[in-house]
Automatic annotation (TrEMBL):
Organism: Paenibacillus algicola
Origin: domain of life: Bacteria
Taxonomic classification: Bacteria, Bacillati, Bacillota, Bacilli, Bacillales
Name of the protein: Cell wall assembly/cell proliferation coordinating protein
Pfam name, any one: SMI1_KNR4
Ranges that cross the membrane: none
Domain (Knr4/Smi1-like) ranges: 11-134
Length: 137
């Protein structure tokens, strides 16, 4: 997998700050990606949900508060429309978000696609972040 359009360097402190702010434990693989490719777009960048095929990842949201459109900003914009336990970590081209969903498991979140165009519906993507990354084509 290749990555394009990376933002400023993220640190372990940035990851810890996200975990502390949202009271969560981020997946290890996600942390590695953030440290190596902060706020970047994966190539290839398509993924499927259990309902539809061919969604595209526009970018992984930055975790640094120095970057606009970071995880904190996006969460603040849409938090009233998300279900409890959901944290956005990537966006698509249409203003939708790929989210961690900690509702069922605080240690290993599932991955869901939040579709704002269909009354804030959630579509299952993967049972783990690692599985999500392996499913990108």
């Amino acid at each position: 997998m290749q990555w394009q359009f990376a933002k400023s360097i993220a640190t372990v402190y940035d990851l810890w700050a996200v975990e502390s702010h949202f009271n969560i434990k981020l997946p290890v693989v996600y942390g590695r990606i953030v440290l190596e490719h902060h706020g970047a777009r994966p190539i290839p960048n398509q993924f499927d949900t259990y309902k539809r095929m061919g969604h595209r990842i526009k970018t992984f949201l930055p975790v640094s508060k120095k970057e606009k459109g970071n995880v904190y900003d996006v969460y603040a914009w849409i938090q009233t429309r998300l279900q409890p336990g959901m944290i956005p970590f990537a966006s698509d081209d249409g203003g939708n978000y790929i989210c961690f969903d900690y509702k069922g498991n605080e240690q290993e979140p599932i991955i869901v696609f939040w579709n704002h165009e269909v009354e804030d519906t959630m579509e299952m993507v993967s049972s783990s972040f690692e599985g999500f990354m392996k499913s990108i084509y």
